[in-house]
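User: Show me a protein chain along with its predicted structure.
Assistant: Here is one chain, sequence first, then structure tokens.
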Amino acid sequence: MPPSDADLRLLEVLQAQVLRLGQAIGADPERGPTWGRRQDGRPFVEAQDGELRFAHFERGNVFEICTTRDPDELLYQVMAGIVSAMSIEWELAHRVEAQDVRVVIFERRMELLERLSPAWLARWRAEEAQLLRDVGLA
């Protein structure tokens, strides 16, 4: 069943929000998911009857990241993926010899998440508390 007009409008609004958030942290607009369509290897967002699905399609299989009716949850999941990739690229460009690479990655990730939403940063810190303790950032 194709998405309804309301679902298509919701996808348009969310796509615009992801682009706006991405601009706030200097993300490449091409880094985000596709909207309403599947493309092999790229994450995508679909909507059906108000339910949002964030997943990726690879080699004929769908790997789900999250399904939600909460637009903020979807935005968090999409932006967390973008921030993760940006943080890894940052570490590669700013490598500190003899330092655990995770420290640089996580510091950058926290900086970017805080710029997007202090609540998202707090959530991520809670989700990754043990890992942050392990690298001395908690």
